[in-house]
Amino acid sequence: MRFTSLVIELIRARPRLIVWIVVLMQAAMWLFVALVFYRSPPGSLATLLAFGREYRVGTDLGPPLPIWLADIAYRAAGNHMFGVYVLAELCEIATFIALYHLARAVVGSQQAVLAVLLTMTVLAFSSSALDFGPLVLARPLWTLLLLHSWQIIGQRRGNAWFAWSIEAGLLLLTTPAAIFLLSLLVIFAVSTAGGRKTLRALDPLFALVVVAVLALPYAVWLMRAETFILPPLPQVAELNARALNAAWLLGGLVLGAAAILALSFLNTGWFAGRTEEPPIIYRPPVAPLARNFVYFFALAPALGAVLISSLFGLDGVLGGAGVVLVMAGLAVVVTAGDLIAMRRARMLRRVWAAAVVAPAAGVVLAVLAMPWTGTGEIATSMPARAISDFFDESFARRTNHRLRAVAGETQLASLIALHSGRPHLFIDADPARTPWMISAKFSETGGVVVWRASDTAGTPPPDILKRFPGIVPEVPRAFEWLVTGRQQLLRIGWAIVRPKGT
């Protein structure tokens, strides 16, 4: 009697259920890690929230939509980071569900599950997803754009134009890479007979109107701020360094998708038992247009982003790895053929589970182990709530006023700005970044200036003392990390700038 595992049978009988189960489990895993092991926001999320409270149409952080949504989620959760973490995971869930619907339209529902499972192993869809921002919000918007683009071009569904226009407008309000991504959609449409036929209708014109209306406020801000300037092209002497950077960026993408390559290799005939009769995952034949669509958007975004990033000397891949690799799993499934034999299914399940769980386990291990090695600090182990409460209460006791602004070291100041009172962030080292708070206004409203204390007297760094010559440093305040280990306590030097009239 032939035995087939329960997972394979569920993929065949209830593919959508499998997708929802694994996607929700991954989201729950990262929410658990964030709530238990994160005492402060990851990356630059605290600064993003400090900018978000101002509700500016544009800032140097980029288009406004992710900044506004982060602040809305933070306020909705009662000024708790839980709301932002949930928003980030909702973006991941929306990305995978949209990818499942796109894959189902191309390879059928059963193999669509395999495409989603493979894509979940990409490293970009791991802990960085908690660092909500343009790179995270762009993923579901780009995946939805691909879904509705295929419905328009490949399935001739004219009713998808409205959703397409909304998503394109929101993508322009999310990431500067939107112009590059939308250009790829236009290139594919123009290069195919079905796409050219679609563009001859009136629907694209109405879609452009909707996109223009959504993006107009930010476009006006860009023109008035005169910030829409491309970085300079490299000189001839810089070409070797830029080419090396391109190789590193491309290698990083390949490494990020290494689990897909490993799972594909392990499912080859080399690892099949001699008497094994592997279960088969079927699909209907893939049309040539669908095959071209998948291959184009699996390769063009990645290669184009690497080329542009290296040409202009960018540190990361334009648009983020999560955007340019979102079609990698589907491309592998399309290449595999109409019949995919699941050889050594138990081994594949273990490798897949390890690839999904390993990043979370690595984060937990780093939080618990690195403090004992003394080799570095974990930024998410800073006690953000204790820091913000202390300085808010200290300012109120000394001045009998509510804390309205905070300056000094941006990382520490951003954490204090997370307090329920939401003081303004003032980046005194570069005041142009925070136009809502200038030096004169900071002196009028008063505030707290903070820095990393290097001695027991709390002597301010020379640059801070130069910008605030009249401050009197207080006794530094020491805070414990989530896991202190062998590292020193977090010592924060501070001084109060009293409001005028007190």
Layout of strands and helices, then pairs:
Blueprint: H1 6-13, H2 15-37, H3 45-52, H4 65-76, H5 82-119, H6 134-153, H7 161-172, H8 178-191, H9 193-199, H10 203-225, H11 239-256, H12 258-266, E1 280-282, H13 288-311, H14 321-324, H15 328-336, E2 339-341, H16 345-373, H17 384-399, E3 405-408, H18 410-416, E4 424-425, H19 439-445, E5 447-452, H20 462-467, E6 477-479, E7 490-497
Parallel strand pairs: 3-4, 3-5
Antiparallel strand pairs: 1-2, 5-7, 6-7
Overview of this structure, please?
- The structure is a single chain.
- With 502 residues, the protein is mostly helical.
- It folds into 2 domains: 278 residues, no CATH class; 116 residues, no CATH class.
- Helices cover 59% and strands 6% of the residues.
- Helix 18 links the parallel strand 3 and strand 4.
- The longest helix is centred in the first third of the chain and has 38 residues.
- The radius of gyration is 26 Å and the shape is globular.
- The termini are far apart.
